[in-house]
């Protein structure tokens, strides 16, 4: 096993792990805002690791440039898209999830 | 073409197998996230879930481009990321209600 193969396996494993975290967050978290938190952070990091693994695997100039473009693009657009959707959700008056104690303190 | 063949011979098959297996796992995770598209109580839940599935598809395309030694799949991944972003922005813009907002 060469060093490049070890790096590729490591980055792919990290990417799959963070994508798994995003999937668990999408299923288990309680409302739109916290779900978009999981979608924005964990999924973006998983995509970053996977594309980094692909760039390390190819190692040629054209593929590294395309991978870097894809990486920068995902890092900009994913939080922007989630912010647009949650802003629309908040403007529609969708409730923010709170615990029972916080709800009582707000109504007081 | 010669450079690509040299890459195939020097790179071990382990990296290709790991890439393809990871692509299969990410496809299964996207199918799990599809539950949120079906069951999400609001439209915005569904759009966030579709956004996550789109990012997963970009990951799968990138991993397939390495696993099958086809660098041109990276271009398709870039185009898919662009379309995914446009989808989310359009839905976020069209479901936005400017009146009746109470910013606290």
Automatic annotation (TrEMBL), chain A:
Key words of the record: Membrane, Transmembrane, Transmembrane helix
Any Pfam family: PhaG_MnhG_YufB
Entry-linked NCBIfam families: CPA3_mnhG_phaG (TIGR01300), PRK12674.1-2 (NF009314)
Residues annotated as transmembrane: 47-76
Molecular function GO labels: sodium:proton antiporter activity
Protein name per UniProt: Monovalent cation/H+ antiporter subunit G
Coiled-coil stretches: none
From TrEMBL, chain B:
UniProt membrane topology term: Multi-pass membrane protein
GO cellular component: plasma membrane
Source superkingdom: Archaea
Record key words, sorted: Cell membrane, Membrane, Transmembrane, Transmembrane helix, Transport
GO molecular function: sodium:proton antiporter activity
Annotated compartments: Cell membrane
Bilayer-crossing regions: 14-35, 47-67, 73-96
InterPro entries per UniProt: MrpF/PhaF-like
Protein name: Monovalent cation/H+ antiporter subunit F
Origin species: Natronolimnohabitans innermongolicus JCM 12255
């Amino acid at each position: 096993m060469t060093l490049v193969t070890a790096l590729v396996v490591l980055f792919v494993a990290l990417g799959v792990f963070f994508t798994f975290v995003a999937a668990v967050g999408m299923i288990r978290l309680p409302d739109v805002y916290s779900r978009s938190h999981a979608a924005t952070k964990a999924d973006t990091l998983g995509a970053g690791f996977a594309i980094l693994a692909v760039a390390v695997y190819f190692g040629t100039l054209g593929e590294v440039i395309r991978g870097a473009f894809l990486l920068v693009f995902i890092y900009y657009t994913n939080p922007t898209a989630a912010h647009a959707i949650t802003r629309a959700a908040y403007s529609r008056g969708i409730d923010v999830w709170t615990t029972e104690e916080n709800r009582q303190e707000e109504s007081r | 073409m010669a450079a690509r063949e040299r890459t195939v011979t020097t790179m071990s098959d382990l990296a290709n197998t790991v890439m393809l297996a990871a692509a299969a796992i990410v496809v299964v995770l996207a199918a799990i996230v599809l539950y949120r598209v079906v069951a999400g109580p609001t439209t915005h839940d569904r759009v966030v879930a579709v956004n996550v599935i789109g990012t997963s598809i970009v990951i799968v395309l990138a991993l397939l481009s390495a696993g099958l030694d086809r660098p041109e799949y990276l271009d398709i991944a870039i185009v898919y990321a662009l379309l995914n972003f446009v989808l989310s922005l359009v839905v976020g813009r069209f479901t936005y209600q400017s009146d009746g907002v109470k910013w606290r």
